[in-house]
Amino acid sequence: MMDDDWTSASAGATTLTVTVWRGGADGKYQEFRVPRRESQTVLDVVTYIQRHVDPTLAYRFACRVGMCGSCAMTVNGAPRWTCRAHVDAVAVAGRLEIGPLANLPVVRDLVADMREFFDKWARAKGRFKPSATRDDDFAKVSPQEHKRMEADAGIECIGCGVCYAACDIVKWNRDYLGPAALNRAWTLANDVRDAGSVERLIAVSGDAGCHSCHTLGSCAELCPKKLSPTRSIAGLKRATLAVALGRKEAGE
Length: 252
Ligand code: SF4
Ligand code: SF4
Ligand code: FES
Fold this sequence. Notes:
The protein has helices at about 5-10, 40-55, 85-90, 115-125, 145-155, 160-165, 170, 180-190, 195-205, 220, 230-250, and strands spanning about 15-20, 30-35, 70-75, 80, 95-100, 105-110, 110. α4 runs parallel beside α8, α5 packs antiparallel against α8 (about 180-190) and α8 (about 180-190) crosses α11. Strands 2-1-5-3-4 form a five-stranded mixed sheet. By secondary structure, it is of the alpha+beta class. The site of one iron/sulfur cluster has 14 residues, from α10 and α11.
């Protein structure tokens, strides 16, 4: 359907006015009109534009059910996972403004370049380092153990980048590891099967690490999985301090 035909067919009270970021960092917002639907998500709106109005619109998604973490965008000023963000909950007076995630370079339109986000997971040593070999028996970790419960509290992260886009410290200091990488480091610091804890705590304790967090909590407020990176970072602060004191006592 041509843009003009579609626009005239859908004009009226049952439409949303949607402005969408187009281009790279020097791009601008473009306005579209999208038919209102029951139980419509922001991702449905973006998909409608791409399929019915402008097939050149670039955006990213995969699972559509809140599992893959690939669909996050800025919606009316706040970062959100768009496949589970209902228009009813986020539209203001029938309007949506949709842009790429903040605090990351723009590739094009709604696609942010996630490389620095995941590079920071690597810098925070967010990879499991096994302490056992294939010849060892399975580790038995009780669900009631304190460390297991600490790890469980942060383990459901889907890597969506919402917290990273919400964090003012990331905006001011692009070297800061950010809430997701630090949350991941804390889950591993509590994994009793992991052998990389000391080097990980050292990796997250520098100037761009956990001690830069101002505990403002935007990450926890907006995390779609209801995780609290703020709480994980507080745990890392305690643990890194303990390592530092231990080193001092050991004369290092
Ligand atoms: S609590 Fe820390 S990591 Fe979370 S948004 Fe605030 S400064 Fe960033
Ligand atoms: S901590 Fe939450 S907001 Fe941050 S990447 Fe993980 S799921 Fe997304
Ligand atoms: S498309 Fe997978 S989380 Fe939204």
